[in-house]
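User: I'm curious what two different proteins look like when written out as structure tokens. Can you demonstrate?

Assistant: Sure. I'll show them one after the other, since each token string lines up with its own sequence. Here's the first protein:
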Amino acid sequence: MDKEAAILDGALALLEAHGPAGLTTRAVCEAAGIKAPTLYHYFGDKDGLERAVIRRGLADFMRLKQQTKPLADPLEQLRDGWDVALEFALKRPALYALVSQHARTEPELLADAYALMQSRVQRLVDMGRLQGPVDHAARGIWAASQGALSLLFLGTSRKDVEAVSDLLFNAVIDRLSKAHP
């Protein structure tokens, strides 16, 4: 394993064990068995390290999103993608928190995930299964998903997050499935 990968592995382990606050350059150097100049050589500074951790985490996430079961029903495919996002955030809450923190100022971090979801919504709109402009429908679905995931920051139990997630998905899809004046 190369040094850069070892540093990222150590950083991800620290992140999940101690949250974003535990992701210090000193702790990462200790975890990876390196000195600070080596970390700075690969990542520049702590912010560069965080960005690399986020890129790696989002790459893992997108692999999961793109590997969803091949489903004939595009609505099931949309739901499967929703569930993959929920499960990823539940299993890796510290990474999700770090991504969310950075996405506030760098929304492009989530562009690939949003584009994949939007393409699935586009297909449903094209089929007449969802109503309204694609952008409106996609933003509604995205916002509902993010709302469910935001419960993680409140310490809500997994069971309750899953229940609210199910409620929000069904409510938004029900609303978008019907023509409204």
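Here's a second, unrelated protein for contrast:
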Amino acid sequence: MLIFAWGGMSVKNAKLILNSMNNWLPIVSGLRNNKFSYLEAYDRFLTQSLQGKMPGCGPAYYTKLIFLLTKHLHQRGFIMDQWLGRSINLLADREIVLFYQCRVRRPLKQRYVHKNNTCRAYDEFCNAVRNLTVVSGEIDPDSRIREENVEMRLFSVGRGKGNWRNYVIENDVLS
């Protein structure tokens, strides 16, 4: 629940997801006990979500669980929220991560990650973050730290204060 609160989940959605804990808590346990890879966990969360068994919780939230609870740190999944998803799409110049709101000709401050992002899309998204790490200039010998630093740069401070986030908002538009 702390992860959901840290991620800024609304009280309404928190109540909904709390009432369905029996559906997703086994996945969290599997992550913490090294039973699932990040992709297996994503696939299980996605299945629960598409079956309506995780109300109020979509990919932007359950990928926070994956990122923060995965013990397979050499192969961890990343947080696929609107800021990282929009960043990866902008850098890739194509839609890897699907959103509910389509790109428009004027900047949008909010775009929400669509619940229909497949496991394949999530894997492509995570690989894109890893690939950015290679060209990022990060020099820490631990690849996990390099990846996390790249992810934090793409997240860009939060609440619209970072230069990169403002760049994403202004440039995540149709040409």
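A detail about the second structure: The radius of gyration is 16 Å.
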